[in-house]
Each structure stands twice: as C-alpha cells, then as structure tokens.
Amino acid sequence: MFLVLLYFALPLVDVLLSAEVSGLPGGDRLDCVKASDQCLKEQSCSTKFRTLRQCVAGKESNFSRATGLEAKDECRSAMEALKQKSLYNCRCKRGMKKEKNCLRIYWSMYQSLQGNDLLEDSPYEPVNSRLSDIFRLAPIVSVEPVLSKGNNCLDAAKACNLNDTCKRFRSAYITPCTSSTSNEICNKRKCHKALRLFFDKVPPKHSYGMLFCSCRDVACTERRRQTIVPVCSYEDREKPNCLNLQESCKKNYICRSRLADFFTNCQPESRSVSSCLKENYADCLLAYSGLIGTVMTPNYIDSSSLSVAPWCDCSNSGNDIDECMKFLNFFQDNICLKNAIQAFGNGTDVNVWQPILPVQTTTATTTTASRLKNTGSETTNNEIPSHNDSPACANLQVRE
Questions:
Q1: Using an 8 Å Cβ cutoff, are 290 and 349 in contact?
Q2: Helix, strand, or coil here: 50?
Q3: Coil, strand or helix: which one is 276?
Q4: CA distances from residue 83 to 110, 120, 150, 254 in whole angstroms, order as listed
Q5: Rounded distance between C-alpha atoms, residue 287 and residue 257, angstroms
C-alpha cells in the first residue's frame, strides 16, 4: 500500500519542486505572451522592455544618443529592471497557439546580452512527466522487456491508424513529405511544418511508439528510421557543416528553442542513475522529438545502433573541428538519449519508486562548448540486427 501511495505522490512532488524554483508567488509562471501584455500595460516595465528589444536588435542609435559603453550600460540597466517582473521568468509551451510569438518575446529577453553562444536554459515550461505515465496508457508497450520476435515498429504504425488523431496528423505529413515538385523531391518547408504538428499534437503513446519502437532485426529498424520520411525531411543534396547548420537553426525562433530544450533535457551525466542530468527520460524524448520538423531534424544514422544525428558533418571545420565534433557527438554518442530510447522500447524507466533529485551544477548557465561533451560510444541491447534480412523501407501509405 505504501508503494502505491508513493507512486501516485511522486508526480505531485515534481509539481511542488517546479513551483519552488519558478520564483513567482504560488509557483505560477506566465507564458511570455501574457507576461508581455502585462508589461506593456505598466509604463516603467514597457519602457524598459522596449529598450531591451532595441538592444537585442542592435539599434542603439534609434533609442539613445549614447553609444559604446554607455549604450551597453543602458541595456544592462533595462535587463536588471526587468528581472523584477514576471516577464523575466516567463516560459512557453510547445505547440501553443502563439508559440512563435511567445518564443520571440522570450529570446528578446536573453539572446544578445550574454554573448552569441547558444543559450542553455530551455524556453519551454517543464512538463513534469515520466515515461511510466506513458506506459500506463500505451497498449503497444509492455511493462516487461520486449521479447517479441515481431516487428514492433509495424505494430506501432497499425496502432496509430486505429487512433483518429494519430491517423489524421500522420496522413497530413505523408502527403507533403512525398509529393514531388518540379524543383525538388518535395516541399521541405511544408513537410517540416506537418511533421512538427504530428509530434506536437499526437499523444506520445502513439508518436513515440513509431519513433522509439524496440527492434530485433533490420526490417524493423529500417521502418523506424523511415518514420520521419528521410528523403524529404532529413536528407539533402549535400551535408552542411554542423556548426553552420547550428547557426542557421539559431536564426529561427522555433528551431533555436527546440535545440536549447534538447541540450537542457538530454544533457548526459555519468554520476546519475539514468546517465541524464535531469534524471527524466520522458523530458529527453520530448525534447528530441521536438527537433523533428526543423532544419536540425535528427534521424537514426543506420540500422545497427541507436546513434542519431542531424544531416551534417564536420568536414571543412578548420580550427573549429573540436567544437564541431562536440556538437555532433552530443547527438551521436549521447548516453542519456540512448538510455531514454532504450527505456521506452523496453518498457522501463528510471527508478519510479524513489524520488531522484537532479545532479546539481555550479552555474545556472554555461556556454555551448562547456556543456557539450564527448560521452563515448555506447552499445545497446535494444537492437539485434539480423544479417539474414535485407533492409525494408517503410511503406508511407497510411494503410498498413
């Protein structure tokens, strides 16, 4: 009985911990759109916020005659004043109606006054969920390690077609992701937008079932790799340098935010039980799936491992080769992400009976170079490639 009570009490503990660190009365943080509306109704806040936005835009001459150090001091003063307002603690929700506008407001608060590195803190409100919450609802995921010799990814696709929401949003991305045009294989922009909607709107028990299904042969792993339609959404004529791709991502509010969320929630930590700094597989998988449908869209590299990567490499990196490899290895050799994928496929989670506190760090924010570390290549038992089966590409038709 005690274990049962503790099992249902843990989610409440997560909520209370989240409320404690939010820094606002009652633990409630406004989304940035509402916080901005509040700020604009208050003259002192409105003035400082407009100043800060002009600082971010680099238009010092438009808001002050001061230049150089004086202008920078004015920018810092505006930020310090806004730290006392709810706007400073605002966050966004993935897939919300005004997500792009919300993220634009968020980044206007943070993106330029702390340098040009990718910022570490996620702009998204924590979900406070665990994989065990998904397992209780997912009919295709067993609570025991997967022993079936069948194709779990095919079973996941069939389960998607039996769910109206999953089937509708899957149909919505199949069309733009496979239709040819005169200039390219497909309309990548429309394909990416439809993929984002799929992973934002479809319940994880179905979307994760297709993306993180456990496999024992190549036919299954190839179907899993084909879930996001690689030819259109993932591959391109040439592979860009990963640092250039990162820069391109940072110019888009949604991509920048999803990447920051991924770095935050899939940060490896060797001292933790799960090998994740946040000790939360569900948050890592949510952050990873959030990258799909952006220019940083990752996918499985091959059919023999759980290694993933965006469509980029580190050729022509020059003196930045080490930084580029750290960035790429955060995807390819991320033991936190690999453990999270394997945990979903095997129906296991971080110890759900005992509350686990995240490993504390000495600073709240760090640079990209210090956060991205080589974690070493790890092997997994989640996939046992069969050399007797040839790869079978997934059937992109909605009907399986």
A1: no
A2: helix
A3: strand
A4: 11, 18, 55, 24
A5: 10
- Compute CA 252 distance to the chain's CA centroid, rounded to the nearest angstrom: 15
pLDDT at 355 over 60: no
- Using 50, 70 and 90 to split pLDDT, how confident is the model at 149? low
CA distances in angstroms from 61 to 55, 110, 158, 292, listed in the order given: 10, 21, 59, 39
Whether the pLDDT of residue 18 is over 90: the answer is no
**Type of residue found at 233:** S
Kindly state the tokens that stand for 80.
């310090």
pTM: 0.77
Domains defined along the chain, listed by start: 29-111 (1.10.220), 129-139+149-346 (1.10.220.110)
Q: How far apart, in whole angstroms, are the C-alpha atoms of residue 198 and residue 171?
A: 9
The number of residues in the chain equals: 400
Contact 44, 81 (CB under 8 A): yes
| Residue 93 φ/ψ region, left for φ over 0, alpha for ψ in the -120 to 50 degree band, beta for the rest | beta
